[in-house]
Amino acid sequence: MARRDNSPKQNKGNVRKSDSVRKDFADNAYSNGKRSGKKEDTGRAKSAKRSAARGTEGKKRAFGGSDSGKRQEASDFHKKRSGVVPSGNRNDSTVKKYIPREKRYATETGLSAGDWNLRVSVSVETEEQLDAVLHHEGVNLIYIDEACFGIRETAKGGSSAESSAVKGDDAESEAFAKIIENIHKVGKKAGLRLRRIERDTDSGLDSANLIKKLIDRDAAPDALLIRSFDEAMMVSELENSETGNKGLNHIGRIFDYTCYGYNKEAVSMLRDLGAEKLTYPIELTYRECLNLRASVRAASEEGDTSEIPYEMLVYGHLPMMVSANCIQRTSDRCDHQNRFLVLRDRMQKNMPVRCYCKYCYNQIFNAEPLLLYDLEDEIRRLEPESVRYDFSVESGEEVLKILSGAIPENMTRGHFRHGIE
Ligand SMILES: [Zn+2]
Q1: 3-state class of 28 per DSSP?
Q2: 25-48: pLDDT as tens digits
Q3: Is residue 403 assigned to a domain?
Q4: pTM of this structure
Q5: Would 95 be classed as within a structural domain?
Q6: CA-CA distance, 382 to 297, in Å (whole number)?
Q7: Among 18, 63, 199, 231, which is most buried by a count of CB atoms within 10 Å?
Q8: Cβ(414)–Cβ(14) below 8 Å
Q9: Are residues 37 and 155 both part of a single domain?
Q10: What does the pLDDT look like over 95-130, one tens digit per residue?
Q11: Same structural domain, 162 and 284
Q12: Distance from residue 309's CA to the centre of ligand 1 (Å)
């Protein structure tokens, strides 16, 4: 039950384009396969260390460890070998623990977060990234990922399962409320990025109830980053409910690039679904983005509605595939800890795999991040209301480098650069 984010053609396009982009940087470090063990020991913060440690353990368990730990009953569905390997040819790809490689930066730099004179949003997936952006003066809004923060369904026991579940739900919303309050304390806006896949069988609070509880706690986020139509519908339903009605009017609804809006008709549908701001589609070239902007503007003038503002992603490892099958669980041993793995493909490219095992889904990221923050003219011509940096595998230190405008030598322009003279 794996779903491709991009069509195969687009994936190939990414690889091809990244090849050509790499030529832009003469001293190409892609062959630099050496791994920085030192950095891992010293530079990475708690969360990365924890996930590395867990990774080792997970591997031990997965590959024949006679571990007596609690094992998850896997459904037949999950016992089936999943389609996590993009090529379908398992023999050519391997999954390993993710060991961060020291990034090398080009001599050129791009715009720093503080130089945009636009609102700057960031999304974070680890505590370390959150710490890094919390006091960064260039950042206005921080999205925290629902699947990466809060509490995990861990220590059970003591009282009945039901009352511990209620306690767990309260602890979950309390944990989010705390982070949101901390973000507000430093004068920034807080956003909640909803999980990429939600199942009825997910443990703990569902997104709707998490939002309700946050509203009840008076710790509602300022914005929701909505990533699927299901979520858009869920938020609309919530809006019409009693709780939602009280608080939801104040929560901005930003649709991520995963809610496709390639033309004005699609954009108008997204507005009907409650979108108050859109993210420029990552599949479009710069020219196509310009045309989209113009047609959306014309449509709003005709229809006498206000023009919908856009957020523009200027940095982030793009997901190549999201899989509802959990790599860990496929081997019958998911401990519901989030972690990073790496998938090495036939071309010996290391693609980070993020296991969001709080809810047991995986995303395979492109090996190289999309990077547009040195294309200031083009970005400004698209008139985004805000720019966004999506952080996933980065250390806190890397987050700060990226926000300062440093350009990693290995990066890609995605589809954006096509059609630029
Ligand atoms: Zn899992």
Answers
A1: coil
A2: 333 332 333 333 333 333 434 444
A3: yes
A4: 0.75
A5: no
A6: 12
A7: 231
A8: yes
A9: no
A10: 777 777 778 999 899 999 999 999 999 999 999 999
A11: yes
A12: 36
